[in-house]
Design goal:
It is a single chain. It contains 4 helices and 7 strands; from the N terminus they run βαααβββαβββ. It starts with a strand and ends with a strand.
Length: about 150
Amino acid sequence: MRVIEYFGSGRQEHWLSQIGRCDWSAGQYLHGLLSRDALSDIAGENPHVLLLADGDELVSFCTLTQKDDIQPSGLSPWIGFVYTFPQHRGHRHAGTLLAESERLAAGRGAEYVYISTDHDGLYETYGYEFFRLMDDVNGEPSRVYRKRVFP
């Protein structure tokens, strides 16, 4: 397995089609944003789309961006669109992408990375701590987690 950055892969069409196989509505939303080259419009400059691949098969993906669905927040960067295909679940593959996102964020001098989610109990297993409830762009409460990545 290897981590690939979508924009630097040179194979965006292939990986876009793989993301398009996702049965999750947020994954389909990401697919649409990438199809229209519009991710940076909502997520800020220089977004990363990280892919965990087994050969040509997409196993898991996530984003690392300046903004997420909690806006304005004053918090950055955000890990979002975390998804593992059903046949690959239970092997902590998302953790590989979270670790790579954390490494990239720390390399840019971020003290924390943030995740907005409705999951309770998932991200704690990867070292994230509940930070607080915040309203998303639709006015719905979302659980915000954070993890310290830089001293």
